Amino acid sequence: MVAVYDDERSFMNVEKAVAKEAINVEAAGCAPPVLYRIHIPFGRYAIVVYHDVNGNGILDKNMFGVPAEAWGASNNARPHLRAPAFKECVFVHDVSHAAVSIEIH
């Protein structure tokens, strides 16, 4: 799952993402690293991705609220003991910054 956000208030709420898509990398024959293009207007964004192993459409968490599936965010923000904040993940998408690399752990 790839979700793009342009606002701190909607960040991490997939239903309010400005762009979102589930990508079946196995069906597409992709192997890491996966290259995926999203066409969005220039602006400030944060991206969150996760590997929905069981296909239930959500990022599963354990009983302590820690993600049980691999995930990543733009700027490779991975704070300890909490989810990343919008301001940690935000980047400016413009002519000079057109690609974002995200590591999934």
- Low confidence ranges: none
Order of helices and strands: EEEEHE
Largest sheet: 5 strands, antiparallel
SS class: mainly beta
Shape: globular
What is the residue-mean pLDDT, rounded to a whole number?
A: 88
SS strand fraction: 15-25%
Distance between the termini: 14 Å
Discrete helix count: 1
Give the tally of β-strands.
5
Count of the domains: 1
Helical proportion, percent range: under 10%
Rg over C-alpha atoms, rounded to the nearest angstrom? 14 Å
Describe the structure.
It contains 1 helix and 5 strands, in the order E-E-E-E-H-E. It has one domain.
Protein traits:
5-stranded antiparallel β-sheet, 105 residues, 1 helix, 4% helix, mainly beta
What's the short version?
The chain has 105 residues and is mainly beta.
Topology:
Elements: E1 2-5, E2 19-21, E3 43-50, E4 71-73, H1 86-89, E5 91-93
Antiparallel strand pairs: 1-2, 1-3, 3-4, 3-5
